[in-house]
Amino acid sequence: MSTYRLQSLFAPRSLALAGASPRDLSLGRIVLRNIREGGFKGRLQLVNPRHAEIDGVPSVAGLDRLDGLPDMLVITAPPGEVPGLVAQAGARGIPAAVIITSGLGHGPGSLAEATAQAARPHGLRVLGPNCLGVLVPSLALNASFATRMPKVGDLALISQSGAIASSLVEWAGSRSIGFSAVASMGDAVDVDFGDLLDYFALDRKTRAILMYVESITDVRKFMSAARAAARVKPVIVVKSGRHPLAAQAAATHTGALAGADAVYDAAFRRAGLLRVLDLDELFAAAETLGHLSPFEGKRLAILTNGGGIGVLAVDRLVDFGGTLATLSEKRIAELDAVLPKSWSHGNPVDIIGDADARRYRAALEQLVADRDNDAVLVMNCPTGLASPAESAAAVVEVIQRERARSMTRKPVLCVWVGDRGEATRIFDAAGIPHYDSETEAIRGFMHLVRYREANDSLMETPPSVPTQFVSDTETAREVVTRALAAGKTWLDPMEIETLLGAYGIPIAPSHLARNGFEAARAARPYFAKGQAVVLKILSPDIVHKSEIDGVRLNILNEEAVRREADDILTRARRTHPQARLIGVTVHPMVVRPKARELIVGTTDDPVFGPVVVFGRGGMAVEVLNDKALALPPLDMKLARDLIDRTGAGPLLGAYRNVPPADRQAIELVLVKVSQLLADVPEVREMDLNPVLADDSGVIAVDARVTIAPVAAGARTRFAVRPYPKELETHVPGWDGHPVLLRPVRPEDENLYLDFFRHVSENDLRLRFFAPVKEFSHTFIARMTQIDYARAMAFVAIEERTGEMLGGVRIHSDANYQKGEYAVLVRSDLKGRGLGWILMQRMIDYARAEGLAEVEGQVLRDNTTMLRMCTDLGFRIEHDPEDPGLCKVVLDLTAAGAVASAAE
């Protein structure tokens, strides 16, 4: 349901508290006290059948006795009463409830499940149960059992844990950090992370979002909301449970490498979230984001009165991936004019231990004005030679003067070592971020840097997939379907060869032999070419072949093949008497002396579904544990990033007499594996290990694949909806040249650039409601890089030339009820019916997705579009606030609209 009715949780005008109590230390009394002492200006009513009034506030016996309809119901009543209260609230039309009560249990048959079922038919939104509550400082609303009301600010806090939320509120209160809202989810029977991310992403009072996560349930909803939120504001997350006490044995290397926390990390990275490891780091992030906006660059200038702490700060900056700014000769000369001769003459700018306020002021003025740095860290070590408070005041004076003079506010961070007094109060009053140590300050600086880098990465255009990417999806599906029909859970080597071959993934060929004589016959062609062979045991019950000496390498003649094959089978019968032995497989011995051994694999995470794993491979793959994970689907850019996050990345370059490996071939294998998972969701785990990579390309030497049926009707098991290839259609074109209608791809940027050259200035004005003079990368990226779970854009491509002829897009609201469309056709093709075709395709898609309504804004002088909308069944509404605009609306639930669109 997403943001539906969430306004009632975070902007209520009236409240009702069910479970208010006069009993000391009871939950109902604490929450009542917090609401009243917080100063909430809206109306408050109490519900308690045993008391006519509580602390001077009248109380009614039940929800049916309330005077009017409150926007929000807060529940602190005993657990057994909660489902009934929720059912009554829904029936009365109350839009939202916060259930602070704990002890409702979990799962089928629990009070929590009964509560969710009671709320659902009425559309009642429920936060909780077992939660801290809701705090909205700008409304003086403290509907919680937190010990204090936080200050007004622009950070939103979403926490699964009430204790963590309460601790953050306490910490923030001591550091002058404020919040736009604090929401504790508790057991989250309704409102979850996805809902709250959607709400705060659009909330103008919120500049950044902090999250404490224990687990994610609806991962597709979460990923979609997180990616959308991260594009517009920083989202910082801390997750508990990074190191489970025990791990189950995995059947494949990729299963062993892909721990649960590593998958969460990959998900956060894919969504563009900033992950921190503990509350200390989250506090540092809150301190930074509470006072500073993200900025370009990562060059840091350091100003200090102590050389030692300056060097420590440089060490931490390098540790965290930052860059130390360089002082130009001109800047050094200007600092020379205001500093003593003994200053450091470099960065860190050490102004010596006797530095007073005047010296701090003079040096900081130079660094703030310096365009060769992007931010400044100012540090002070206490000495008996100068006043730390006076120096702090001088720093604040420079910052405030610079803010008043310039629209570009260069970030300044401060560390006053050991100070808990006057300097702290000075920085708090001025809203200057300050930290207890150089490490915290550098972390805070890097949080801002990494947010900008993550945002840039989300907007970066991936390179096109090379034309040699071919796939035969039908053959791949046929292999898996036959194997499942035979009751298999593992594919045999021959099936794997066909499966991978359908996607052009190179693998050493294999031949089945049931005994030594068949093995010798299969090896004969390789010996004729002077090539050695490899033998491997084939049994569905023996997964790790090398553990029973079931792999024999570099066999050079037929007699040796017969002997080794029989020995493998004899040993397998002795060590695994219950195993089903099919025989051995014969493979050519692949010798690439300068190749790197890699692993490319997939595993199936119980929360996030398919995950791609890449790293250094070979027999010691688990020992090396050099791997990185990514959520599919992958494009070439994501594949490149995945490689670069491992130690294998640097090894792929040239060194000594070893030529560089073909990185594009490796990236392409990762993309192909990702596409295979999308097309054949029955593939659950895959090991390509080792994959040999050198300057001639890549080849998998060994592979294992597990399969399992998928639920009927399942569209995708991916956490991030993949490119919907099934939506590609062909329509007749002009002059006998067919047109492909397909969803937009992230790599379509150049396609759009060329398309816009064929659109007149007036048509661009009609589409974008203003003259468009320049098409920046950011502008086009927002059109090509869409979340298929929330939006769709179809482009019309002339198949003969590959040119884009037009496009239509529809973006759903957060509740997935309405969609807003836009359409544009090349100016030289207007009047040929392409606009009509695109509009019909969009309407058909919206209806198939279950949207109830499609709407759009059209300039009143765009008579062609208005006429087409009328013919398609839209109703035309005039905008009362803008006489130049019309709103066009199509009701997809009306029979007339269906008929009109279908004709």
From TrEMBL:
Position of the signal peptide = none
- N-acetyltransferase domain mapped to chain residues: 739-895
Cross-referenced InterPro entries: Acyl-CoA_Synth/Transferase, Acyl_CoA_acyltransferase, ATP_grasp_subdomain_1, CoA-bd, GNAT_dom, Ligase_CoA_dom, NAD(P)-bd_dom_sf, Succ_CoA_lig_flav_dom
Q: Does the keyword Ligase apply?
A: yes
Identify the keywords attached in UniProt to this record, alphabetized. Answer: ATP-binding, Ligase, Nucleotide-binding, Tricarboxylic acid cycle
- Entry's Gene Ontology molecular function annotations: ligase activity
What protein name is recorded for this chain?
Bifunctional acetate--CoA ligase family protein/GNAT family N-acetyltransferase
Q: Which organism is it from?
A: Rhodoplanes tepidamans (Rhodoplanes cryptolactis)
